[in-house]
Every structure is written in structure tokens, then in C-alpha cells.
Amino acid sequence: MISVGKLARTGFWILLIGYFLLPMLAMARFAFQTIPTFLLTTENVFQGWGFGSLTVAFQDAGVIKSTILSLQLCATTIALTFFVLVPLTTYVEVSAPKLKPWLTGATVATWLVPPVALVVGVAATFRQVIPSFLTSPFTLTFFYSLWMLPFTYRAIDGQLRLIGAKNLFEAAQSVGCGPITFFFKVILPNLKSSLYISASLIFAAVLGEFTFASLLLKQTMPVYLWSFQSSQARAGFALALLVMVATALILGFAVARMRKRGLNFSATGI
Amino acid sequence: MKKIRKFAPALIVAAPFVILMSIFLIWPTLTTIGKAFIHEDEFSFFNMARAMSGTYRDSFITTAQLSLITSLIGGGIGLLMAILLRSLPVESKSRTLADSWSAVASQLGGLPLAFAFIALLGTQGILTKVLGAFGIDLVELGFSLTGLAGWALVYLYFQIPLMFLIMTPAVSALRASWFESATSMGANAWQFWRSVGIPILLPTIVTGFVLLFVNSFSAYATAYALSTGAGQLIPLQIRFILQGNVITGEDELGFAIVTWALLLLALSLVAVTLLQRRVSRWTEQ
To answer: How far off is chain B from A116, nearest CA to CA, in Å?
Structure first.
């Protein structure tokens, strides 16, 4: 005799897994099966499957160009974030722990100003004061770095605490090691895994970012994807699915690595 | 001189961060808020009043409804997931899978997610067709991906895992001994959660709901892809005005709408902090 509670529980999980899985499967079917939905019957479900739509996507010059731009933005954002965040977070952890609540508060401030609101402000300021600044797509780097701060800060700060940066600094000082040598020879090598995690989080986020790029009219991959799928629906959906799988894999590896180091992934950065 | 030498390293390491924050976050935000209160070169509430009237008011209501629905349903399901998975050890396969999947899904949003639901439940969607074969006509039932129910269904895809991620650390922190002492006194699981578990978790639950609300209120890409063009949601209204801001006066309206949205988000986060203090006082007693 199966209990009602167990039945309800099983039902809950089945519904939930179905909810998360079905949209992905539907998208895959649309992208990789050439039969349109209205012609689909129980007889031809297994016909017309293939990866032709991905070939179409990768032969499109716009797809290649916008993907390169998105990858470049990933690189510039990672570089800027490390430059801005790593020395500061280390300094606060080691020499100025009193400033920590302020730094944490500042990094989550991005929750108060969503991208779509920030872009309005950007249009109101930069467009009037230094219009040329917004013409380069690499302007996005600054906004992406800002927008990812809650996540990257948490990853780096957590690791610094985990390795006991403060004690390490005292030990380094006692053997006559200066702060700059300490930073490059002790901190950076020890932060390797959280830097890798931060870079993965940035990579996954920037690869899919649509709001800033679309509103500031920059042809990054997601923005191009939107116009591409209106003429090449199947290829567009195939590309979107590929991006989603790639993002999921990158994020999944980053999270698995965080769990292994005893760091918690916080989806909010708070 | 000594003071300067003492603070020089702090200034050098803090400068890039302060510059980034001031130029790219604080300056644009303050400018927007300032400009929202200026009409015909004078201080006035004209724009703010206009942003809360007519279609814009309706948009605020629709967006708030959507955010409330998805944070309540998403929050409830996410909480239930965290509670049901509590008894599993952290290293177990299902826990690892649930944790990693939630981390990924909470960040999926944007175009691909919208595409996936269009392929499933759009007018040419596969599930629409399958349900049709069983005589269930979604359109006749009033369901559409460009309506409140449709948006909510899509938004839940990132809201549920987000709540799960917020709740999991708090739920695992509940001590097993509390559960054991409750059961040894004859309480069943339901009674335990009602009188012990949920009250202890309340601060985290409230925080989770508000963060979900904010998350849904700010979502742009998914809304954009689902409603193609000007929609009835605030993020889409903002875009509409931003692109048409050549018309004089319309940009002022955009500033006012953004200012209202910022005010709402700030208020909800302040409310969280206050509520948390209140609740933590209750639970301490």
C-alpha cells in the first residue's frame, strides 16, 4: 500500500522535472527536425532529424562576427573585473576589515538598479556629455563588470576567508615579505580556483546578455540572434540551444568546483 | 605626510572600484532621478504624475501582478524543493544535481528560454499540438505566452531554482536534533514544519520572496522576446520610450518611470531589512 504522502511527493517531482525538461526538448525538436509542427504525426516523429540547422547558423557571417564580439567582451570583462576587484578585496580582508560591510553593500547595489533602468541613465548622461564613448561596443565591458560584481565579489571574498589571507599576511610580514610580493606570490596563486570560478560566471553571463547590448544597439551574439531567428528560425533556435547548453556546462562546472572547495554558489550575490 | 603615506595604498586599490561605481552606476542613476523632477526647466512633479497615469499605471500594475504571482508560486515551490531535499546528504547524487541544475536554471533567462517555451507552448508549439489532439485548445482557454499566465509560466523557470538556492543553506542549517525532539514528543512532520521549521526560516523566506519579486520586476530579455514590440510590462515601456526619445518630453517620461521603478525596488529591499529585524526578534523570544 503506497501512502498518499509518498504519491504526492512523487507526483511533485515528476511534474517539476517535466516542467524543466519539456521546453528544452521542444526546442531541440524544433531546431533539429525538419518537419514543421503542423505536419507532425505519430508516423513521422522519427524522420527528418539532423544537425543541418547548426551548419546553416555557422555559415552565417553575422553569427561568426557577433560571436567573436561576445567572446572579446567576455575577455575584457574578466580582465576589468579582476583589476578592479582582486587587489581591493584582498586589501580590505587583510588590512581594513572595518570597510567590509561597505564593500559588500556596494557590490550588491546593482540589485537596486536593474540594467534596463541603468541604460536610461546612461543615455541621459553619456549621450549628452561624451557621445563618442557609447559608439564602441567595448563600452559594455564597464556595465558587464558592474553587473556581475555581486557574484564575482562573493567568490573572491569567500576564497580569501577560506585561505585565511589575514594570517598569511602576518606570516609573510614576519619573514620580511612586502605587500606587493605577498599579493603576487601568495594571494594570486591561492585564489586561482575562485578566479577561475569568477571568470566562468562572467563568461556564462556575458555570452547570454541581451538587455544592455540590445538597448545600447550593439551587435553582440544574443542581439544578432534575435534578428537572425526572424529570418532563419530553425538555425536561430539551434544556435540558442547550443548557447544554452554551453552556458549550462560552464556554470555547472563552476558550481561543482565551488561546492568542492566548500564555497556556496549564491544566485543573488547577497 | 605620514597620513598620506598610510592611506596611499588604500586609495590606489580602491580608486578603480570607486571610479567604476561612480561613473557607471551612481552618476547615471542620480541623473535619471534628478531629471525625472524637471519639467520645462523647473522643478515639478508633472513627469512623476504622468508616469503613474493611464497605460503606464496599468503597466506598473501588470508588472507588479506578474512579480507577485511568480514570487509567491516560485517561492512556494522552491521552498518545498529545499524542504523535501533536506534529508538527503550534501554529497548525494540527487542533491548535487539539484544544486547544480538550480544554479544554472536561475541564471537562464533571456532569449533562449523564451524560444524554448515558444517551441513548446507557442501557437505552433509541440505541446499545444499534443493537447489539441486531446481536445484541449489552449487559445480557447485564454492561455497565451504573451499574457500574464504565459509570462508567469516562463518566469517560474528561473524563479523556482532561485528560491531553492536561497533557501537551501537555511534549511540545511536547521538542526536534526530539533526534528528528533519534536517527533519524540509526538509531533508529525507537518506539525514540526508549521510550528518550528517555518517560523525559524521566516526571515530567509521573506528575503527570498522579495528578491524574487525584484528579479521578476527587472527581467527584460524574456519579456521582450515573448511579447515582440511594445508590451504592457514596465521594462518594455522603458525600452519603447528610450527608443522614441527624439520626441521632446518623452525622455522625461522615461526618467520618471525609471524613478518609480527604482523607488519600488528600493522600498522592497528596505522592507526586507526591517522585516528581518522584526522577525529575528520574534524568533529569539
So the answer is: 6
Q: Is residue A127 part of a domain?
A: yes
Residue A220 falls inside a structural domain? yes
Query: pTM here?
Result: 0.87
Inter-chain touch B262–A117, beta carbons under 8 Å: yes
Q: Is residue A138, in this structure, part of any structural domain at all?
A: yes
C-alpha to C-alpha distance for B57 and B62, rounded to whole angstroms: 9
User: pLDDT tens digit string along A14-69?
Assistant: 999 999 999 999 999 888 887 777 777 777 777 778 787 888 888 888 899 999 99
CB A122 within 8 A of CB A134: yes
The ipTM (two decimal places) reads 0.86
Q: How far is B282 from chain A (nearest CA, A)?
A: 23
Residue B80: inside a domain? yes
Return the amino acid letter for B158: F
The answer to whether residue A37 sits within a structural domain is no
CA distance B21 to chain A (A): 7
Check CB contact under 8 Å for B103 and A16: no
Q: How far apart are CA A78 and CA A82, in angstroms?
A: 6
Does the distance separating the beta carbons of A243 and B100 come in below 8 Å? no
